[in-house]
Amino acid sequence: MKTYSSIFDCCILEFNQIHNRSGNITSVENLLNIPFDVKRIYYLYDVPGGAQRGGHAHKELQQLIVAAGGCFDIVLDDGKNKKVIELNRPYYGLLIVPGIWREIINFSSGATCLVLASHKYDESDYVREYNDFINYKTGKFSHNESQKGKELII
Ligand code: TYD
Q: Is the pLDDT of residue 24 over 50?
């Protein structure tokens, strides 16, 4: 777990668009326009209205999240600060560094959330309890809800 990582280490990357009368193409390549070697790709789809995904952090995994279709919001939380980022175009990607709690909410109908990941699936890389996440970030052992990150207006 990157205990020192913050939401300010996460950023939006803009990819090239190849425009064509019959549609557009965006391509991304390992280490060229994404800052890690992609080992896994997965996508969320058929997300029911009102559903929330995520609700965990990763110890080592880096991810690039793209709204390949539709839109959704990603809530980033480093234990101190919190911000909400709307993804709504397929040529933007949100880079999430390790050690960030994330929730994905407000999926539009038919949205596809494409995730490029730096490692293969490994359940031991997940931190699934918010209190455990705070413990990782602070090294403390008992925490309560009041320690959730404060909302920032961006
Ligand atoms: P999870 O990452 O918790 O989903 P989300 O963050 O979108 O809510 O994964 C949900 C389930 O799917 C969990 O049982 C693990 C499994 N899973 C895999 O088997 N492989 C994968 O690459 C991913 C992302 C999840």
A: yes
Instruction: Please spell the DSSP secondary structure of 14-56, one letter per residue.
Output: E---B--TT--B----BTTTBSS---EEEEE-SPPTT--EEEE
Domains and CATH numbers, the chain: 7-138 (2.60.120.10)
Q: Which of 121, 122, 130 to mutate to test the pocket of ligand 1 (most atoms within 8 A of CB)?
A: 121
Catalytic residue check, 56: yes
Atom of ligand 1 nearest to the CA of 115: 24
Answer yes or no: is pLDDT of 23 > 60.
yes
- Ligand 1 pocket check: which of 38, 40, 42, 133 to mutate, most ligand atoms within 8 Å of Cβ? 42
